[in-house]
Amino acid sequence: MAAEPSAPSGPDLTQGIELGILNDNGNLLGHVGDEAVLLARRGNEYFAIGATCTHYSGPLAEGLMVGDTVRCPWHHACFSLRTGEPVAAPALSPVARWRVELCDGKIFVREKIEPAPAPSRAKTQAAPDRIVIVGGGAAGFAAAEMLRREGFAGSVTMVSADNAPPYDRPNCSKDYLAGNAPEEWMPLRPLEFYRDNGIDLRLETEVASIDPRGRSVSLADGKSLLFDKLLLATGAEPIRLDIPGANGPHVFVLRSLADTRAIIERAKGAKRAVVLGASFIGLEAAAALRAREIDVHVAAPEKAPLERVFGSDMARFVRLLHEEHGVTFHLEQKATAIDGARVRLENGQTLDADLVIVGIGVRPRTALAERAGLEVDRGVGVNEYLQTSAPDIFAAGDIARWPDPHSGSRLRIEHWVVAERQGQTAARNMLGAGEKFTQVPFFWSQHYDVPINYVGHAEGWDDIAVEGDIAGRDCLLRYRRGGRVLAAASIYRDRESLEVEVEMERDSR
Ligand SMILES: Cc1cc2nc3c(=O)[nH]c(=O)nc-3n(C[C@H](O)[C@H](O)[C@H](O)COP(=O)(O)OP(=O)(O)OC[C@H]3O[C@@H](n4cnc5c(N)ncnc54)[C@H](O)[C@@H]3O)c2cc1C
Ligand code: FES
Q1: CB burial class (10 A; 0-12, 13-18, 19+) of residue 12?
Q2: Measured between alpha carbons, how far is 155 from 298 in angstroms, rounded to an integer?
Q3: CA 295: distance to chain centroid?
Q4: Is residue 424 in contact with ligand 1, taking CB distance under 6 Å?
Q5: Helix (H) or strand (E) holding 257
Q6: 410-450: per-residue pLDDT in tens?
Q7: Is 302 exposed, middle or buried (0-12, 13-18, 19+ CB in 10 A)?
Q8: Which residue among 202, 371, 453, 472 is buried most deeply as judged by most CB within 10 Å?
Q9: Who's near 502: CB < 8 A, 6+ residues apart?
Q10: How far does residue 235's CA lie from ligand 1's centre (Å)?
Q11: Closest C-alpha residue for ligand 1 atom 24
């Protein structure tokens, strides 16, 4: 998915651009040396920032400017035009900035502006001393990074049951599994980042219990940690199959980097794979295994893959797309047993499998919260500040059920970007910011060369308004109820997807 930055195109911005070329809210892609630069005008102000998104190298010039920010067309990260800061995930690193000068009716981009120094870690009276983060995934990492970005001076301890430092989990079922992403793409930050930022990262460490009153955490190895504020970000765990043979050595779930590495090892000698479940993860894994030229069969109980999320037209497209790439579907079928290298289906058919991937959904890991006496109802209940029923404990990511202002209901969803942004909001709120979490949910999914983007959230709808051509891979689908757009799915309509996001933000205000 990450694209190599291409050779810079457009004018050399150091040579000057006629003032009239940029209208009030216009922007222009150019370059300074071999760096792509986005020149943007907002009223009478001019900005020049790096034009390549620091997430997966998305082209910011094709994004959307909103106020003094620009949003990336690919996965909706947002950067400040003034500072280059990544103000909304999934980008976590800033883009460069250049000084802009108006001279003789022209705009000149001059020298690069040195990045602002990290805020000094000053202790304020109101700030807590010790923050413990349980979970080293999307939400946990984004929270730790934001605490330091905000200049938090106290201790930050991140406890993770994972054996790898925080990594790019979505890639575990995409390019990395397909063999198209090098190892160095996976960590969100190198190990030195934790040392340099004073983040005490404890890997392969399980939290056994939390005592909200005593403000302490007990670790499975018998040690304990005290906290002033705690973030619970334990994510979700894959549901296991409960049929004979499901514990076989060739049967895998796909949640962690370790799972992906085990699947890759097994895939090396495999000719045929069976994927159980036509979920996002199941289908992405199917696509990745096809890239490894493995024969792939997908068995799932539903009539059409992803129909519950996307509706029937898009579901038909997803099915055809996978079939075009050689995947064989066995729909309206569950597996009843795995007998060595054979998977048996309800209809009696057996499928040969050197490798089986089970992608039948996940469950939020709420056990710690329940044992701690926190309010849990199909997720850890949080208020608009992401605070649980214990005021010093916050929750974010796949476990959190929050009041979503757009749908008007309490949501718990499993999206990378939502988890990161909740982690960031929770971090600021642990420092006393009092900031509501109001972001419109967003996720993306990748099937071969087709990315599907989705903004908002719709569990049901009156109708789906389709613009463009789904089969032609150029479409935007609006899911509407009571005349309101609840969500929009799109393929190669990135700008419109951003525009819908902004409309939804305005609507709920
Ligand atoms: C293969 C795969 C592909 C995906 N692709 C996409 C995608 O394309 N787009 C998208 O929007 N979303 C995608 N998702 C979903 C996305 O990754 C999740 O929504 C996101 O990771 C949730 O973040 P989180 O921080 O809540 O949990 P996680 O990222 O799961 O992190 C949870 C952390 O908590 C730790 N933990 C759990 N219990 C304990 C304990 N008791 N003690 C200590 N540590 C503990 C775990 O070890 C882990 O480090 C994908 C998920 C998977 C598995
Ligand atoms: S490439 Fe920009 S948000 Fe992913």
Answers
A1: middle
A2: 47
A3: 29
A4: no
A5: helix 257-267
A6: 999 999 999 999 999 999 999 999 999 999 999 999 999 99
A7: middle
A8: 453
A9: 64, 66
A10: 5
A11: 235
